[in-house]
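Deviations from the work plan: none for this task. Representative record:
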Amino acid sequence: MSAPDELPPARPPDERRGPFAWLRTNLFATPLDSALTLLLLAFLAWIVPKASGWLFIDAVWGPQPLAACDAVRGQGACWAVVWEKFRFMMFGVYPYEEQWRPAIAIVVLTGLLVVSGFRMFWNAWLAVIWTAGIVVTFWLMGGGLGLAPVRTEQWGGLPVTLILSIFGIAFAFPLGVLLALGRRSKLPLIRAFCVVYIEVIRGVPLITVLFMASVMFALFMPEGMRIEQLLRAQIAIILFVAAYLAEAVRGGLQAVSKGQYEAAEAIGFSYWQSMGLIVLPQALRISIPPIVNSFISMFKDTSLVVIIGIYDFAYAVKKSVETDFSWKKYFIEAFLFSIVIYWIYCFAMSKYSQKLERDLAHDHPR
Amino acid sequence: MLSNERVRGIIYQLLLLAAVVGVGWYLISNTLHNLATRQIHVGFDFLGREAGFEIAESQIAYSAADTYARAFAVGLANTLYVAALGILLATVIGTLVGIARLSSNWLLSRLASAYVETMRNIPLLLQLFVWYGIFTELMPPVRQAIAFGDAVFITQRGLYYPWPQPHVAWQAAGWALPVGIALAGLWRRYARGLQARTGRQLPTALPAALLVFGLPLAAWAALGAPTALSLPELRGFNFRGGRALSPEFLALLLGLSTYTAAFIAEIVRAGILAIDRGQSEAALSLGLSRSQELRLVTLPQALRVIIPPMTSQYLNLTKNSSLAVAIGYPDLVAVANTTMNQTGQAIEAIAILMAIYLAISLLISLFMNWYNHRVRLVER
């Protein structure tokens, strides 16, 4: 019997560790991959020096005069515009001497968002903290109790953006929960009302609701009664967001198993007891990630109040450069500044929401 | 009696009804009173009056002498035009970025994630402002236009490109296109039926391409194959001839589609990830080719996951096109806004606006539901 064909010795296993192995598996796995990598590297080699030169190296930093910017126009960014217009961008037309108040309001409201992220506060404390935060903000911005009163027409800048979104969710949340419960109610009239409300609001753009608030509120109210423009926008945002929150909460309500509803009924709980003590605590926990996501889109969408002329952050930035002819040409830098601020808030919140989604999924493996 | 659940249910509903009617009556009576004191006449007859304002760009014929109703139609056409192109572009960009995020190439997937994380965390309005600024302030004035050959020009007044001279052959080609698409659909049906009955496979891709592209080409060639182009030319202070895209339109289209693409990319990625790897391995081991595997096994399953969230992104894009008013593209909202300012018919204008957007939302949802129904899982 002849010896079986001898197999050639197996090649040693591919190097799986070390920078070269990493490069080979992640960047140069196939010829196509290599070509793609080289193409992207060439693109980066072209854009990165150009962009970093304009953004950082050749840019004008610090409180420099206009002439310094004009000298490098085209080569470098003019960040001096941010120093020049900083107060107006952040606080709009708020009285200059009192601008420490909105500055503290920014800290309070941002702190409110940060604190809400900690799960140890997810109990009755959250309501207390939010109420306190909202009251303090209102006092700081509006005055009274020892502070000079400032009318809402003069509020502006970043605090207004934060107020519109944070007050917005604080008031839209209970409304949204009620709408979600109503949509799942057994009572046909209540269900019909909630369905129509939610679907109509979700079917139209926010701008139309803002227009309605801005133009039609004046007609709705009895003669002589005026609602301030900011309050109108705030009400419009609350009414708008409530519909989206309702859908987020409805998702949570549907995810609570039927046995929970039945168990609550079986021990003789009334509707409100079973909802308040059994179903909602579970449903809300499930709907936290979509609620956070609604908040992020609302935070971005508050910029739409620009269109009805409210001095939120986006509008203050726009106006700060538009109204000054000599600095107007550096509008891109001004917008980039506001973009960075918005991005920091939204990116932090969306990363948090993704982490939360993973954590909560881990808590309740399905 | 109050302890009876049904009685309480009826009472709750009556209370809600009373509240809605009460608030409604209060608001309406206030409104009627206010309108009377301002001497504003309620009703939609203003739609028949002459609008008297120009609209910068329009997909249908319009002049200031036309009625308000026609102005609304122009706004609607502009909204639909930018939304349709935006949906198309956003889907293409979003799908590419979504696939790129899953690429095994580290650099590509990182760049794609950076794109997604940047775009979706910046308010769309600010992105529109920046795009608009780029197209108006950073582009050269008309006389120093950036030229590509002698055909395409970019200036701060927009993008100019050549367009064929009007000729009956082009019209015929335009009509031949839908005919070709319909015929291709019929051929595909026939081929599928034949395969189901006899197992014989007919080629579908090539005949379909021939029908869709060849038919218009043949129609064009048969009627004289005109090649005369209208080229944009600098005459006086502006370009004449060819066609133009305004900076407002370009800013809105690019802003909307690059923003929505970031969300679509995530949806596409999730859809692809949702499919078990065993599915494509099984398909390949059955002897299906790579393209058959993609077309017959992976894609149908991925679409099932992708379509519902994609629908809401399409709706979002359409609704977000209303931000046009901030950069001066004459969409539906911009026309309604001008109308409100001119006539004071705020209630009617906003009602029309909302009704139209609701109708658009409803139509897109219906269409996507129908499509979703078609690709749904058929359980046997």
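Chain A has a mean pLDDT of 87.
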